[in-house]
Write a structure and sequence with these properties.
mainly beta; 6-stranded antiparallel β-sheet; 4-stranded antiparallel β-sheet; 4 helices; 7% helix; disordered N terminus; SipW-cognate class signal peptide; TAT_signal
C-alpha cells in the first residue's frame, strides 16, 4: 500500500493530522525520546512526512508521521523477518492561498537506548536517497551498525532537497524528497530491545544565507558500545565428516553444500568452498569455508536470523584447531570473518590433515554459560571461570 502525496495532503486537510508511525516488539524497535521536541519545533516550516513500509515487519503499513521524530516498525524482527525497509517521504505542502517556501531539510539521531545492548551492534542500518516514482535506490546517506549510524548522525545531516548529493551546496527542498531506510539483523540471538530516536526538521531557506544546522550542539554524546559483545560462547553443534551420514559427506570429506547440525537441526552450515588433498587415492578435505544458516523442517535454508559465530574448531587426528572471534571483531556468521581464515574464508585442519569433524560455537546472552566444547573430545569440560563466563580464549570465548 503506497500513499500518494496528494492523497495524504487531502487527508491532512480533512482531519487536521494523523497518528505517528509506531513499532513494538521484543527484538528491536525505534521509538521517540521526549525532551528535545520544543527545541526542534521552534521556527520549523510546514513539513509533511509520509512512511511506507515496503518489506519486513509491518510490510504494507503506510501513513503520516505526526511530530519531529520517526519510529521505524521493527516489531517482531527475528527468525521470520530478519530484515525490512521503509520509505520516508519529506514534502512541503502547498495549498490554495499560500505557498510553502523552500526549506533546508535536516536529519539527526541520538544514541541507542540502552547504550550497552548488543542489539545495536547486530542491527545494520542503511539510509539512502530514493526515487519514489521509479523505486530506484540512489546514493547512500549513511550506513553501518545502528550504533555507528546514530553516532554519525548525532550532529545532524543535511538532506539534499533534490535527492542528488552531488550538488554543492545541498539543494533546498521545494517539493518532496524520499529516503529509503533498510535494516537487517545480523548474527544475533536474544530478546533485547533498543530505541533509536530519529529526528527531522526543515527550516526556511533564505537568500544569501547559509542554512544553520538546527541539531548543532543538541546531541553531543558519543555512542558507547557494549562491554560484552559476546557474553557467552557456547556449542551449537558439530558436523562429522563420515560416510553415510548426510549426502555429500564421506570419511574426512565434504563436498560444497548445505548440511544440518544433528544436535540442532534447525541450523546448518552452507559450505561454499573447500581445500582438498589426495591421500592413498582418496580425496580428503583439509579446509572448509562456510556460513551458518537456518533451516526449515525439510532441511532447506531460510532467510531466518542466525546467531554470530564466536569459535569454529576444525578437528583432525588427535587435536583441533580453533578459529576464534576476538573481542573487537564485528559479529559474523561466516568463517571469512574469523581471525585465521584465509583470503577465501577457509579454515584448515592442522598439518594438512583430513578433517574428521567441525564444531560450531555461537554467541548467546545466557547467564550460565556451558562454554564452547568439542562434544567428542572435551566430554563436557570447559575452560571457563567459576561463573561460566569465557576464560582466556582457549575455551572458545572471545580473545582477551
Amino acid at each position: 500500500m503506497t500513499f500518494s502525496r496528494r492523497r495524504v495532503l487531502a487527508a491532512l486537510a480533512a482531519a487536521g493530522g494523523a497518528g505517528a508511525l509506531t513499532g513494538s516488539g521484543t527484538a528491536a524497535m525505534f521509538t521517540d525520546s521526549e525532551g528535545f521536541d520544543s527545541a526542534l519545533t521552534t521556527g520549523a516550516v510546514d513539513l509533511v512526512v509520509e512512511y511506507d513500509v515496503r518489506s519486513g515487519p509491518s510490510a504494507g503499513d503506510a501513513g503520516v508521521i505526526d511530530g519531529p521524530r520517526v519510529t521505524l516498525p521493527l516489531d517482531e524482527l527475528g527468525a521470520e523477518h530478519a530484515s525490512g525497509s521503509t520509505v520516508l517521504t519529506f514534502a512541503l505542502p502547498q495549498g490554495e492561498g499560500y505557498v510553502n517556501n523552500p526549506a533546508a531539510l535536516w536529519l539527526a539521531a541520538t544514541c541507542p537506548e540502552p547504550a550497552a545492548t548488543r542489539l545495536a551492534d547486530a542491527l545494520r542500518l542503511t539510509l539512502s536517497y530514493f526515487d519514489c516514482e521509479t523505486d530506484a535506490v540512489g546514493t547512500a546517506i549513511e550506513t553501518g551498525t545502528l550504533r555507528e549510524v546514530a553516532d554519525r548522525l548525532g550532529g545532524g545531516r543535511r538532506i539534499d532537497g533534490d535527492g542528488d548529493p552531488a550538488t554543492a551546496p545541498p539543494a533546498c527542498l521545494t517539493d518532496e524528497v524520499c529516503v529509503l531506510v533498510e535494516y537487517e539483523l545480523v548474527g544475533y540471538v536474544g530478546s533485547e530491545s533498543v530505541d533509536l530516536p530519529l529526528y527531522f526538521k526543515a527550516e526556511q531557506c533564505r537568500h544569501d544565507e547559509t542554512p544553520t544546522n538546527p541539531f548543532e550542539g543538541l546531541f553531543t554524546a558519543t555512542c558507547e558500545g557494549s562491554e560484552t559483545p559476546c557474553p557467552c560462547c557456547r556449542t551449537l553443534g558439530k558436523l562429522d565428516f563420515e560416510e553415510n551420514t548426510q549426502p555429500g559427506l564421506g570419511d574426512s570429506f565434504a563436498a560444497p553444500g548445505v548440511y544440518s547440525l544433528p544436535q540442532n537441526p534447525e541450523y546448518g552450515i552452507d559450505i561454499y568452498d573447500t581445500a582438498t588433498k589426495v591421500d592413498g587415492g582418496e580425496t580428503e578435505t583439509t579446509g572448509v569455508a562456510f556460513r551458518l544458516v537456518r533451516l526449515d523442517e525439510h532441511g532447506n535454508p531460510t532467510d531466518g536470523v542466525v546467531p554470530a559465530l564466536c569459535n569454529v574448531r576444525v578437528k583432525a587426528g588427535r587435536g583441533s584447531t580453533p578459529y576464534e572471534r576476538g573481542t573487537d571483531d564485528a559479529p559474523t556468521v561466516d568463517t571469512a570473518g574469523l581471525p585465521g581464515s584465509d583470503g577465501d574464508g577457509i579454515v584448515y585442519a592442522a598439518d594438512d590433515k583430513g578433517i574428521s569433524h567441525v564444531t560450531v560455537c555461537i554467541c548467546t546472552p545466557e547467564p550460565d554459560c556451558p562454554g564452547c566444547v568439542d562434544p567428542s573430545t572435551d566430554k563436557g569440560r570447559k575452560d571457563d571461570d567459576d561463573n561460566g563466563r569465557p576464560g582466556n580464549g582457549n575455551n572458545g570465548g572471545p580473545k582477551k
